[in-house]
Amino acid sequence: MMLFDVLLYIFVVAVVIQIIYFFILFGKFAFLKEQKQSPQNLPISVIICAKNEAKNLKKFLPSVLEQDYPNFQIVLINDASYDDTFEVMEEFANIHDNIKLVNVVNTEAFWANKKYALTLGIKAAKYNHLLFTDADCKPLSKNWITEMSSCFSDTKSIVLGYGSYTKIKNSFLNKLIRFETLLTAIQYFSFAKLGMPYMGVGRNLAYKREDFFNANGFMSHMYIRSGDDDLFINQIATAQNTEICFSEESFTESTPKTTYKDWIIQKRRHITTAKHYKTKHKILLALFYISQLVFWTLAIVLLIPLFHWQIVLILIFLRNLAQFIVYNKAAKKLNEGDLLIYIPLLELFLIGFQLSIFINNLISKPKHWK
């Protein structure tokens, strides 16, 4: 029984680590009270980069144009599309005089590189405060710009928002995608409140144009196809210059993948950037994932032979109770409360998918920006 004794001790350590993460780290966001910011009405340039998004622009761009905000510009970037994307952009620009068009043509040096297209769009922006979203994304209220821009201040030049995904009834994949999105948001909001901001999502992100140029834009990681949002924030964000925005009217909503194959391809692309994060962020994120994996693996291994099963069950209960308390608070803040009853199942599936994606990325390189 010596082996099982050792495994039990490791299991206890994993449980302790998980509970520390839930209450000390993730609790920073979960138990945070929203502080309503006063509208500032800063001039804002909304940046939308699109590649082969003609249908989505027709569907979602009106929700950006209808924002109740006194002074904003929309910079539409056509990233070398081969569908009718640019024609659709021109149609909107002919009607709305606050639209600026940027038509990007592929170059040999920056072939199919979204960061190059975004750089051209940022250079074309009229205003210093930039707000980013995607072509397949819509603000969930007419006060999206107001809410996100209100978080800027003399010291806060980066605003991290929440980008949700559309709910699809009776779809386990949809719940899995939304759970992964929720967990990611809990992590980057919590890290930011701890003074260690490490990423944001391009579906809902804001920063100052001057910060972009002061950091030489994406040049330090231009060779990495992904990471126009998370790697750039990882590069420039500090405890002093970063704020989070999680008011309900600040949310955006995107169209989720509807097949496991498409979602896995997307996640493989996203995960490739994590190895380029700062060392402290990589260690903290890896420790959380490893402790998750160890917890569930050893829970099963120890319960099969009923080794000290009473102790094991008590530890499982305490860990899952801590998780539920924290995730419940966070999920309600982000309007994802319907996921709570599925958390154990979703967590197990997500751990398995992340492990398989990590292994696949070691074997072959993922596809990138369309």
From TrEMBL:
Parts of the chain that traverse the membrane: 6-26, 283-303, 309-327, 339-363
InterPro entries (UniProt xref): Glyco_trans_2-like, Nucleotide-diphossugar_trans
One Gene Ontology molecular-function label: glycosyltransferase activity
UniProt domain Glycosyltransferase 2-like: residue ranges: 45-179
Domain of life: Bacteria
Record keywords: Glycosyltransferase, Membrane, Transferase, Transmembrane, Transmembrane helix
Pfam family, one: Glycos_transf_2
Similarity section: Belongs to the glycosyltransferase 2 family.
Name by which UniProt lists this protein: Glycosyl transferase family 2
